[in-house]
Amino acid sequence: MRHRLKKIKLNRDTKHRKALFKNLLINLFEHSKITTTRAKAKAVQGLADGLIHKAKVDSVPVRRFVAQFFGTKELANRLVDEVAPTSMERTSGFTRITEQGVRRGDDALMVTLELVDEPKKAKKVIALEEKLKAKAVKKSTKKSAKTKTADKDEKQLQTADVQPAAKQDHETFASEHRSEQQNKFATPVKRDKIRKKI
Q1: Calpha distance 63→70 (Å, rounded)
Q2: Disulfide check for 119: which of 1, 48, 82, 124 has CB 3.0–4.6 Å away?
Q3: What's the whole-number mean pLDDT along residues 121-132?
Q4: What is the pLDDT of residue 139?
Q5: DSSP string of 64-97?
Q6: CATH superfamily ID and name for 14-120
Q7: Which residues make up the CATH 3.90.1030.10 domain(s) of the chain?
Q8: Rounded Cα gap, residues 35 and 147, in angstroms
Q9: Tens of pLDDT, residues 4-40
Q10: Which three-class secondary structure state does DSSP give residue 15?
Q11: Using an 8 Å Cβ cutoff, are 113 and 28 in contact?
């Protein structure tokens, strides 16, 4: 018999309801806080607490189960490495619901569903971030060294009297151009040949 198996259906069919709950849980574990209606928050709260309780045991089967539920390994790793360790002292009540007021338009009661304990970054993630910062610092120092050498080269060019050479090139080009135009006008046009053809 189906005693005590009634669940909130939220006026949705099974597939739609499962997809809704999955999306709400993904956003909850990514951002540590979501704002939704009270009915949806109450429906999702038990699922969230169950996943956190399961993730407290750090093992490969647990990671596989959570990854299969969410569809991504990154979120499973975040749940097992960052969210669950902060809640080790608690046996239940990993999330809290706080009322936010009424939604304008349909007067639905809005609440915030959030994790009680703020998740801390895993040691692996912190180590990776430190490595990336060190690489960025090295790149910036290399760039600054390159810019300094480029500035020195520019100063040397400015002091090497480059401008008079450019003026000489311009003057030679202008004199050649003048000589070509003078040659064009110097050659007489043979009008006799043109008249004979006509």
Answers
A1: 11
A2: 82
A3: 69
A4: 78
A5: HHHHHHHS-HHHHHHIIIIIHHHTTT-SS--EEE
A6: Ribosomal protein L17 (3.90.1030.10)
A7: 14-120
A8: 49
A9: 888 889 999 999 999 999 999 999 999 999 999 999 9
A10: helix
A11: yes
Query: Which alpha helices (H) appear in the chain, and where do they start and end?
Result: 14-31, 38-55, 60-70, 73-78, 84-86, 123-159, 162-186, 191-197
Residue 24's nearest CA partner among 38, 39, 41, 12 is 41
| 9, burial (CB in 10 Å: exposed 0-12, middle 13-18, buried 19+) | exposed
Number of other residues whose CB lies within 10 A of the CB of residue 53: 15
At residue 117, φ and ψ (nearest 5 deg) are -100, 130
Strands laid side by side in the 95-102 sheet: 33-37, 109-115, 95-102
pTM: 0.60
Residue with tokens 């020195």: 152
Structure-token pair, residue 77: 């790793």
In tens, the pLDDT along 75-117 reads 999 999 999 988 888 898 999 999 999 999 999 999 999 999 8
Residue with tokens 């239940």: 92
Instruction: Confirm if 46 and 124 have CB atoms less than 8 A apart.
Output: no
34 in Cβ contact with 24 (< 8 Å): yes
Chain centre distance of CA 159: 46
> Given the structure tokens 């110097």, which residue do they identify?
186
Q: Which two tokens stand for residue 22?
A: 């999955």
Instruction: Give the position of tokens 């060190």.
Output: 134
